[in-house]
Write a structure and sequence with these properties.
Among the domains are: 13-36 and 153-319, no CATH class; 342-527, no CATH class. It is built from nine helices and 21 strands. The chain has helices at 38-56, 60-68, 274-284, 388-405, 425-437, 502-505, 509-523, 529-553, 562-585; strands spanning 3-9, 76-80, 84-86, 90-97, 106-110, 134-141, 147-157, 166-167, 171-176, 189-196, 205-206, 209-210, 213-222, 233-239, 259-263, 292-301, 311-319, 347-351, 376-380, 448-452, 458-460. α1 (38-56) packs across α2, α5 (425-437) crosses α7 (509-523) and α8 packs antiparallel against α9.
Length: 596
């Protein structure tokens, strides 16, 4: 059955999809919270694949039957042309495909942002004239009024100056019926997200065009000090077509999720790639860090057409740190998980500033022998979801670790466990190295993540937030590529070998020896100049066109020596850092090295 209904759109339109990062709609943080549902998806996919393979294999007759019974296409509402960015008047035709088993369907629609209601909302039986940018929401209901299918897509008008926009990078258009937020709040603004990927033939995005992906979304400004930058960072949640519930979406080749960050390299990172570089290096060390994709972004609000003044420049679309089989792979812990072994994980938490309605907690200080600048903050589960037994358990683990790290034999008097029986030592080494190598002045004390899976050891990481590192602009703490940390410049920086648990770990000669051996290995591999240069050169080539538009938009943060000069500064800093660290390792006491 194919039901076709014409919709007349007499304006230029763009379709938007939805994206998002932080956790639920009313909670925000300087950084990320976890809330994924990775296990359920994994089980479902595994069972389905296993059954299909079992039926298909074996005798020829069974194999033939298995192949012949392939899955039928799912019924769906189609729109031609699809949601996207358009310049000339167009007619949108709706149809229902592959819905024979559903019987007669009625299409109800809305253009005011609200969900259409069968029997109440207009029925799409005649052309609909659209005089301005709008989000078209449609439901298909059966003869009983039960909604069987849904569709949502934004059609946004383009100003002539945006209708010739072209890029070699993916382009994202975020549009809202409301005004685009200008201040940080805890509430998400209902929006639509349109994603345009470069065409395979040309390698370019050319507006006007239908969107490659479109979805409903929620957006809000994120960050702490950077929330006041004119180029805001954003949290994006992708939402379901019919509600504001999270909807996992595969954005630009990254695994499906509903929570995302639009990182905004601005003043500090004028090479536009420091977070992408640090996260890639972490993955090259064998430690998960968020994936990123560089994109160019337009933000539009109200019903005004999208124009060149809505262009916001180059962003790093980034995975939000959260519990997920493709991200931080720990099991979900429920409020009912109060007994061993479920009580033991999974937990994600961080040392950081607390967010609204958060108290955080203190632990692991060994009576003041170990020092943490900030409290620990719950990430997964959220503070509002943690029950007393779980809180006591995790605090007990951290206190046990603090006791072990300050004991003469590095063994906790209460549990009898050596610290290596409480933490994943290699993760603590690698996490320290990636922060130290980049000379992150806020390492560990801000966005300092940890995670612990069920029955697992405590892990350090993932790495997060590196815009103020590697010789960045406007922050002298990371300017000098020598010294282990920035103690020669200011006291407002992380003491690399004394902060938190590292203050105890580096008092153990065995840990220090393992650390220096691992550092030497990595300096000859993923941290070698040949590798870092190759990564930077690849991003610089991809960004060379878009960076000009970005800095034309943000003229107050011009790159030092132009973009090529800024890129060379980053490469030169890393090469000098590598040389200094290599020279230190050749001395009898590397940790006593001073700067130049």
């Amino acid at each position: 059955m194919r039901l076709t209904l014409p919709l007349l759109a007499s304006v230029v339109l763009i379709t938007l999809a939805c994206v998002a990062p932080d956790d639920d709609h009313n909670h925000d943080h300087d950084e990320g919270e976890g809330k994924g549902e990775g296990e359920g998806e994994g089980e479902g996919e595994g069972e389905g694949e296993g059954e299909g393979e079992g039926e298909g294999e074996g005798e020829g007759e069974g194999e033939g039957e298995g192949e012949g019974e392939g899955e039928q296409p799912a019924p769906r509402i189609l729109a031609e042309p699809g949601p996207g960015a358009y310049l000339a008047a167009t007619a949108v035709t709706l149809s229902v495909a592959d819905a024979d088993a559903l019987g007669p369907l009625t299409l109800s629609y809305s253009l005011d942002g609200g969900a259409p209601v069968p029997g109440v909302s207009p029925i799409a039986t005649a052309p609909i004239a659209l005089a301005q940018s709008a989000e078209l929401r449609v439901v298909a209901s059966d003869s009983f009024g039960v909604v069987r299918l849904s569709f949502a897509g934004a059609y946004v008008l383009l100003e002539p100056d945006a209708a010739t926009f072209s890029s070699n990078l993916p382009v994202m258009v975020v549009w809202s019926r409301d005004s685009v937020p200008t201040e940080r709040t805890e509430e998400y603004t209902t929006s639509a997200l349109l994603v345009f990927e470069p065409e395979a033939s040309s390698g370019r995005v050319q507006l006007p065009a239908p969107a490659t992906l479109h979805t409903r979304a929620g957006i809000k400004i994120r960050g702490s000090s950077t929330a006041w930058d004119p180029k805001h960072q954003w949290r994006l949640e992708t939402w379901d077509e019919r509600s504001d519930d999270d909807d996992d979406v595969p954005l630009l080749g990254m695994p499906s999720e509903s929570d995302w960050v639009l990182g905004a390299p601005y003043d500090f990172d004028r090479a536009l790639m420091r977070n992408s570089l640090a996260y890639q290096l972490s993955r090259d060390l064998g430690r998960y860090a968020a994936r990123t994709v560089h994109v160019e972004v337009f933000f539009g609000g109200d019903v005004d057409p999208i124009g060149s003044d809505d262009y916001l420049g180059v962003f790093e679309l980034t995975e939000q740190l959260k519990r997920d089989g493709d991200r931080i792979a720990v099991q979900r812990i429920e409020p009912t998980d109060l007994a061993w072994p479920a009580l033991t994980g999974g937990y994600i938490f961080k040392e950081d500033r607390t967010g609204p309605d958060e108290a955080g907690f203190r632990a692991g200080t060994a009576g003041g022998a170990l020092w943490f600048e900030q409290p620990f903050v719950w990430v997964e589960p959220k503070e509002s979801e943690v029950v007393a037994a779980q809180r006591s358990y995790l605090i007990g683990v951290l206190n046990d670790l603090g006791a072990a790290l300050t004991a003469p034999d590095f063994t906790s008097p209460s549990s009898g466990l050596h610290y290596s029986g409480l933490i994943d030592v290699p993760s603590f080494i690698d996490h320290h190295i990636i922060n130290m190598f980049a000379k992150n002045p806020d390492a560990f004390r801000l966005s300092g993540y940890f995670f612990k899976d069920r029955l697992g050891l405590l892990n350090a990481g993932p790495a997060w937030d590196f815009d103020r590192t590697m010789g960045c602009a406007s922050d002298d703490r990371a300017g000098d590529p020598t010294w282990w940390d920035a103690t020669n410049a200011t006291s407002d920086t992380t003491q690399m070998f004394a902060h938190g648990f590292y203050g105890g770990l580096f008092s153990d000669p065995a840990f220090t020896s393992a650390y220096l051996a691992r550092l030497e290995e990595l300096l000859e591999g993923p941290l070698a100049p040949a590798h870092t240069d190759a990564l930077i050169d690849a991003w610089a080539a991809a960004l060379n066109e878009a960076q000009a538009r970005n800095f034309a938009r943000w003229t107050d943060v011009a790159p030092r020596g132009g973009f090529a000069g800024e890129v060379q500064l980053l490469k030169d800093w890393l090469r000098a850092r590598h040389q200094w660290l290599s020279a230190c390792l050749a001395t009898a006491d590397p940790l006593s090295c001073d700067g130049d």
